[in-house]
Amino acid sequence: MNTPLRRVGMAMMVMILLLLGNATWVQVINADEWRLNTYNRRVLLDEYARKRGLITVADGTVIADVKETTDRLRYLRTYNNGKVFAPVTGYLSVTYGTSGMERAENDLLNGSDDRLFARRVSALITGRDPVGGNVQLTLDSKVQQVAYDQLTAKGFTGSVVAIRPSTGEILAMVSTPSYDPNLLASHDADEQAAAWKQLTAKDANDPLINRATQALYPAGSTLKTVVAAAALADGKTKDSQYTAKGTINLPGTSNAPFPNFNGQPCGPGDTVPMETALAKSCNTAFGEMAAQVGAAKLRRQAEKFGFNDTTLKVPLPVETSTLGPIPDEAALYQTGIGQRDVQITPLENAVVAATIANGGKRMQPYLVSKILGPDLKPIDETDPDEVETAMSKDNASVLRDMMIQSEANTGGEGRNNNIQVASKTGTAEHGNDPLKTKPHAWYIAFAPAQKPEIAIAVIVEDGGDRGLGATGGKVAAPIGRAVMNAYLAGR
Amino acid sequence: MGSPVPTGEGSPGASVATSTSPGLRPPTRRGTELVMLAFAAGIVTLALILVELNQERSLSLTILWLGLAYLGLFACAHVAVRRWAPYADPVILPCVALLNGLGLVTIHRIDLALEGTVFPDGSTWDPVAFKQVIWTAVGLLLFAATLKFLSDHRTLARFGYTFGLIGLVALMLPGVLPGFIAPEINGAKIWLRIGPLSIQPGEFAKVLLMVFFAAFLVSKRDLFTTAGRRFLGMDLPRARDLGPLFAAWGVTVAVMVLQKDLGSSLLFFGIVLVLLYVATERAAWVVLGLGLFSGGAVIAWKLFLHVQQRVANWQDPIGRYDVVGGGYQIAQSLFGLATGGIGGAGLGAGRPEMIPEANTDFITAVIGEELGFVGFAAVILVYMILSLRGLRGAISVRDSFGKLLGGGLAFALCFQVFIIIGGVTKLIPMTGITAPFLSYGGSSLLANYILVALLLRISAAARAPQRAPKPKPQQPAIADQHTVMVERPK
Fold first, then answer.
1. How far A112 CA lies from chain B's nearest CA (Å)?
2. What whole-number distance in Å separates Cα of residue A176 and Cα of residue A159?
């Protein structure tokens, strides 16, 4: 009988091995599938039970705080001036999860980041609860506030992004309509649910989306800066001549007009120099310019400015800006004026402006300047990172000068004669019937033009308060100027 | 027909134990057992301290007293073994002590988590850890009594049929009795309610039926092994000898149908199959049995909603998360295990209140969450050591009945662990069954203490020095004998 008994013993060992193997699979190898499942509230509850780290802006002002409570969750997340900073901070909700910085820097804020390891170990030994690390942002609270006030004063839907060109620090990131993240962080489940319902309602206009990083718009005429950069790189100069016609037919078509704004000719003669074409934002000239450069070189230039970067995180994830498919020459003409399938985020457009401002060197944009331990001692600091040389220094100067001309040709209010600005406006058509759809108003700029300290991108959706007659200059430019003035006034 | 009487057998494997010369008494190893028991008590006390610390309760000397009381309880068990089964395996009792202690700490820990919980029917959570301590004491008493009154396990074989009958009745009773005495709890009809007590007769039936089957098979062994046809290289048993197998299969299916107790029927059938295999040494039984079981399982799956539910929950717990009787429980178990990860949340720092039935069927999930993979694997390995030591006793004992019973008991322990932990970790569909010595519940604890006492008894028989054979009178060889002259009568 011993042989079968030994075999039974083997069977028992096999059963134990199966159990151990499966436990390894569930608890170690495949643990994340279950741990991170949305139904698993353990992780979230654990995080709440810890004191979450703070989020501060550049001057140390706290914008996301914690308050101790007596309820089950122990700590309540509170947001100061929540609506202004919500696109960046995001929210932390027991029911609806996290977004924004709360999500991007979650491990650090909840204390599980490896960089806090030494402190966690000491907390284990001293018996104190682990505490989250703090995140210090690059945001300038004054600029952020002005940008938010400018957009909301007239109830605009849109976004403003401001970047320090020399470093890539994001000085302001605003998206409207915004929301109060305190409502979603509430420990009152009913209050949370009511707020969520209201914010996700159809007519609420997507307040939970951070338009600066998550929304893609046609670039409109602001893309002409990129096209000009490609032409300059291709050997053209500011004096290179292009057609001045008010309307042309798209190549390969007999009756597909490609007009300038209002169909006006770009100059008195047959041709105009690139400088004039940019200053007057002439579509026919830029269609021709794009066609001469060619799709491949145009695309390469756009990539040098940061298009097609699918991995960009600031550390908020950023939608990828693209030129879109360019199947034929007609498409190339349309792409050359930022229409057709060109899609760009406000952040990327600010990066374009900042890159030109920085002498053609593209800096990685970032929002987190420092990571501080629970004791406020710095753990990590972000160093500015030069990604790529998008333009030669000389070409960047040429483009800057042309953008100064463009600013001089741009209308709208808010000009400060003490500050020289280089800019480009855009009036981006969209929708199925572009002529009858209110255009998006764009403005990208940097100042002071000769020694830039701030670069911005402004978008106001659907013409703001000007409807079909809206232009970038009338609607978006005043906002951009106010933001730059506010920043430079403090220096 | 009289009771089956085991036929003694001295197989080659037993020679290890018998080789000890009668004059030299082998070491009893009781000292080793005591040291290991103290070690287990230390671990359990430490676990209790961790729970109290993590639950932010003030530590007091009470914990030390509890630890000592626990040690005292098992010291008594140790004394019982020392006195009545001095040659018993020294590892089995410490393993049991460790598991039982961890179970008590975990049950206490779940009490703390559920403290103040108000259930939908308005009742509040009633702490059960203290009851389990009482059950442990009663269990150890039964354990000692078994060792005292059963000085030779072969005695059991004489009552094989009696035990079989009692066992069968006990197994079937809750299924056939009306609801007021045998209520359906959590979908299974396996309890008997007598006054304030709820007992699960099936737990005891498991041991009783094993005794019966071992005795029966030993007495009828020759029948099973002789005749039969060869088919596909296997020796098939004769049709009429299939009787017991079909009977077992019938009982299994009945349990599944009447009591909706999938775990017990699986366990029961597995035990019968292994006993048949060990007794006959024929793989054909296993193949046949597995075939029968698969057939039965498929039919049950087709016919019964609760079987279909269990299988569906196993396949996709998340997809059926919100369904009534769906995957919520198994999903919570997996969430807990995965969140615990390698190192665990720490004893007292997990969230057992999120897993329904945390202190019975799903207690190992709580241990896996709070002690992590490391602790979970350790518990599984303790079970392995426990059952393999039991099997070792069965292999080295000299009589067939002991071998069969010991092997069956050891396998039953291991198989039960496989069924419940496999269910909790989504290796196999979840079938409600207790984790031996860990889960809350008196019946399970008492039955398993008897089971362990039997294992110890058999291991003691294997290791005890054989009584020296009675010296036979010396008989000189015939060649050396003097020639006796027989005088021819004159």
1. 13
2. 6
Query: Does an H or E element contain A456, and which?
Result: strand A454-460
CB B456 within 8 A of CB B90: no
At A395-431, the pLDDT tens digits run: 999 999 999 988 888 877 878 888 899 999 988 888 8
* Selection from B142, B192, B135 nearest residue B169 by Cα: B192
Q: Cα-atom radius of gyration of chain A, to the nearest Å?
A: 27
pLDDT at A227 over 60: yes
Query: pTM of the predicted model, to two decimals?
Result: 0.66
At B399 the three-state DSSP class reads strand
**How many Å lie between the alpha carbon of B286 and the closest alpha carbon of chain A?**
11
CA distance A375 to chain B (A): 24
What residues of B are in contact with residue A26 (Cβ under 8 Å)? 334, 337-338, 425-426
- What residue in A sits closest to B378 (Cα-Cα)? A20
**Is position A221 annotated as part of the catalytic site?**
yes
Examine the pLDDT at B55 and tell me if it is beyond 80.
no
Strands A170-176 and A158-163: antiparallel
Give the closest residue to A251 by CA, choosing from A329, A341, A340, A335: A329
CA distance A285 to A266: 8
pLDDT digits over B424-449, tens only?
999 999 888 899 999 998 999 999 99
Determine the Cα–Cα distance for residues B305 and B307; give it in Å rounded to an integer.
5
Q: Name chain A contacts of B418, Cβ cutoff 8 Å.
A: 15-16, 18-19
User: B63 phi and psi, to 5 degrees?
Assistant: -60, -40
CA A244 to chain centre: 35
> Do residues B406 and B318 touch, judged by C-beta distance below 8 A?
no
Alpha helix ranges (H) inside A305-421: 329-336, 346-357, 393-409
Q: In degrees, to the nearest 5, what angle opens at C-alpha B164 toward C-alphas B158 and B168?
A: 165
> Cβ neighbours of residue A281 under 8 Å, at least 6 residues apart?
A221, A224, A261, A406, A424, A425
B113 sits in which H/E element: helix B92-114
* The pLDDT of residue A357 is above 60: yes
Complex ipTM above 0.90?
A: no
Query: Alpha helices of A244-304 — where are they, by DSSP H?
Result: 274-279, 283-293, 295-304
A150 phi, psi to nearest 5 deg: -60, -45
- Cα B466 to chain centroid distance, Å, stands at 28
SS3 for B121?
Answer: coil
For residue B328, give both structure tokens: 């919520």
Tokens of residue B452, six digits: 């362990």
Q: Which residues contact A65 (CB under 8 A, 6 or more apart)?
A: A54, A77, A78, A79, A80
Among B347, B368, B370, CA closest to B52: B347
Nearest to A213, CA basis, from A87, A310, A329, A339: A87
Residue of A nearest to B387 (CA): A12
Strand B230-231 vs strand B234-235: parallel, antiparallel, or unpaired?
Answer: antiparallel
Cβ within 8 Å, pair B338-A32: yes
Query: How far is it, in rounded angstroms, from Cα B251 to Cα B241?
Result: 17
Could you tell me which residues of chain A have a Cβ less than 8 Å from any Cβ in chain B? 1-9, 11-13, 15-16, 18-20, 22-24, 26-28, 30-35, 37, 39-43, 45-46, 127
* Contact yes or no for B373 and A27 at CB 8 A: yes
Output the CA–CA distances (angstroms, integers) from residue B147 to B17, B82, B342, in the order listed.
21, 10, 40
Q: Is the peptide bond preceding residue A315 cis, with omega within 30 degrees of 0?
A: yes
**DSSP output for A399-433:** HHHHHHHHHHH---S---TTS--EEEEEEE--SSS
Chain B residue whose CA is closest to A1 = B278
Amino acid identity of A392?
A: S
Query: If you average pLDDT over residues A305-311, what whole number do you get?
Result: 92
A66 phi/psi in degrees, rounded to 5: -130, 145
Degrees (nearest 5) of the Cα angle A415, A420, A426?
Answer: 65
